[in-house]
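Tokens help. Consider this.
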Amino acid sequence: MKDRTYPKIGNMAPAFSLLNEDSEKVASKDFKGKKNIVLYFYPKAMTPGCTVQACAIRDFKKEFEKLDTVVLGVSPDAPVRLEKFIDKQKLNFTLLSDEDHAIADKYGCWGMKKFMGKEYMGLIRTTYIIGKDGRLKHIMDKFKTKTHHDDVLEWLRENL
């Protein structure tokens, strides 16, 4: 498996404009100068690991808000599936649809995966922290879905 190429920390984060669960456009420029962004990529809505990860973010939304941070989840799912995921899990943050994985490609988190001996191209669970200035501050690609929210909050508290 080839190494992924991430955007460089300190550089401007790759711009994005994607449809949310309501098929409305959400763009990185909407937050510039206003909020830090936790942009987390996850493989598929309504799967066990992705549900655990999303529900923890939901439960800690106030903590992210105290740190002037918006959380955006990105997956290759269509907006209609994202809407079902939000309704089913009572999620209180925005999910974005990257069906053609163009943004995942820009961020270096679309690549070769292995599951039960089979190799395939897919979304690799990765989180990016973008400052209010639009610059990439941190990349997390090794974490457990159960403690992801804690790891992100800890980094935000210590570094921003």
Q: What stands out?
A: Residues 67 and 156 are 7 Å apart (CA to CA). The mean pLDDT is 95.
